[in-house]
């Protein structure tokens, strides 16, 4: 097992088989479950791994400490991909003391029936292991109510739980300085936007608690250990939690027979001809919504369109708008269009979503297409794309 710095070891595992994280989010490149071991006068384990990976996990621990006992287990986050091995760890180390905050222990008993040898910590409490001194900082609702982070003040290491994590297994290298991180940046945005995205204010509160704290390593529970790129990683979280965006455009559409797709192509082309360079297009029935949500977090402009279906809005578009509304996304511009065969409902339904849940800034005139584009609706689609581009470029 690799030593990160001064008796701090990585003992985590990779999951290259799971297809959907939390049963929801695709994992084309897998995911890591990161755990860390401090081998000091007292031995301290930071978080565990998903229970299916317990045997390689315990093997990693033995590789570092042999037959030594683990004195403490710090639980920064109770989601089962990090806490799932608690009950089994206690069977191997029955005297281990489990450190968490008050909300940690109620969840731990509920999930695993474990309620003994618990040491409750409050914000700012410290634990001395010998040369290493741990300080606990509570960060509620990033993204569960019990979440906290642990600072090793002796060597400026932050054990951050899910914060600053991303999708993607670790392919040999562990620390960002050892690997090409190009594949992780967009996966960090997808991870944040889909899992943490609703909780911008709690993330900002957590960042304020850590402001000015010297940090040389960030040891998250998913993805690389950050060292060289700490400034970029913290900056990304700061920007995303403020809902800051770049002047780009997401055009996403539902289509049954190609008419709504044709309109989307016209809109995107008009936006491009107006000078906008960053444009991405998605068919909501083909692309997993996690990628669309990722790019909505990246770009300020959004244009959506879909057919009327069963006197309502095309199902996959309805789902996407619900997902966006559930994340309390702010600071976006919205244009919309729709199509129908004989009864128009899609355009009105999209406007209803915006009026009642999304509250994005409307841009341009909505386009309602009967059957297929004619010269009038074609020109209206061009005008919609141009209006959005001019709005974004002017800002």
UniProtKB/TrEMBL annotation:
Protein name, per record: FprA family A-type flavoprotein
Domain Flavodoxin-like: 249-389
UniProt cross-references to InterPro entries, sorted A to Z: Flavodoxin/NO_synth (IPR008254), Flavoprotein-like_sf (IPR029039), Metallo-B-lactamas (IPR001279), ODP_dom (IPR045761), RibonucZ/Hydroxyglut_hydro (IPR036866), Rubredoxin-O_OxRdtase (IPR016440)
PANTHER family, A to Z: ANAEROBIC NITRIC OXIDE REDUCTASE FLAVORUBREDOXIN (PTHR43717:SF1)
Family: In the N-terminal section; belongs to the zinc metallo-hydrolase group 3 family.
The species this protein was found in: Xylanibacter muris
Alphabetized PROSITE patterns for the sequence: FLAVODOXIN_LIKE
């Amino acid at each position: 097992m690799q030593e990160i710095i001064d008796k701090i070891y990585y003992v985590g595992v990779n999951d290259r088989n799971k297809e959907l994280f939390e049963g929801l989010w695709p994992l084309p490149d897998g995911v890591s479950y990161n755990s860390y071991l401090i081998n000091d006068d007292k031995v301290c384990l930071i978080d565990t791994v998903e229970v299916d990976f317990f045997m390689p996990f315990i093997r990693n621990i033995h590789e570092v400490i042999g037959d030594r006992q683990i004195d403490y287990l710090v639980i920064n986050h109770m989601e089962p991909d990090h806490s799932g091995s608690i009950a089994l760890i206690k069977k191997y180390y029955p005297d281990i003391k489990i450190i968490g905050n008050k909300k940690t222990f109620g969840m731990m008993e509920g999930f695993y029936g474990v309620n003994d040898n618990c040491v409750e910590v409050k914000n700012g409490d410290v634990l001395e292991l010998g040369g290493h001194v741990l300080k606990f900082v509570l960060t509620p609702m990033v993204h569960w109510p019990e979440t906290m982070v642990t600072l090793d003040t002796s060597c400026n290491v932050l054990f951050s739980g899910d914060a600053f994590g991303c999708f993607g297994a670790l392919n040999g290298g562990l620390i960002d300085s050892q690997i090409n991180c190009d594949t992780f940046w967009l996966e960090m945005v997808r991870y944040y936007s889909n899992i943490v995205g609703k909780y911008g204010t709690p993330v900002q509160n957590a960042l304020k608690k850590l402001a000015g704290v010297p940090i040389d390593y960030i040891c998250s529970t998913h993805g690389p250990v950050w060292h060289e790129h700490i400034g970029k990683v913290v900056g990304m979280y700061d920007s995303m939690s403020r809902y800051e965006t770049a002047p780009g455009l997401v055009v996403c559409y539902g289509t049954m027979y190609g008419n709504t797709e044709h309109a989307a192509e016209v809109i995107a082309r008009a936006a491009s001809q107006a000078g906008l360079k960053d444009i991405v297009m998605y068919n909501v029935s083909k692309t997993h919504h996690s990628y669309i949500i990722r790019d909505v977090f990246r770009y300020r402009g959004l244009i959506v369109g879909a057919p009327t279906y069963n006197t309502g809005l095309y199902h996959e578009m309805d789902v996407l708008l619900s997902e966006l509304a559930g994340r309390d996304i702010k600071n976006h511009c919205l244009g919309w269009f729709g199509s129908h065969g004989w009864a128009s409902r899609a355009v009105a339904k999209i406007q209803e979503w915006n009026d009642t849940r999304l509250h994005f800034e409307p841009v341009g005139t909505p386009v309602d297409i009967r059957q297929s584009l004619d010269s009038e609706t074609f020109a209206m689609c061009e005008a919609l794309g141009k209006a959005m581009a001019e709005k974004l470029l002017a800002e």
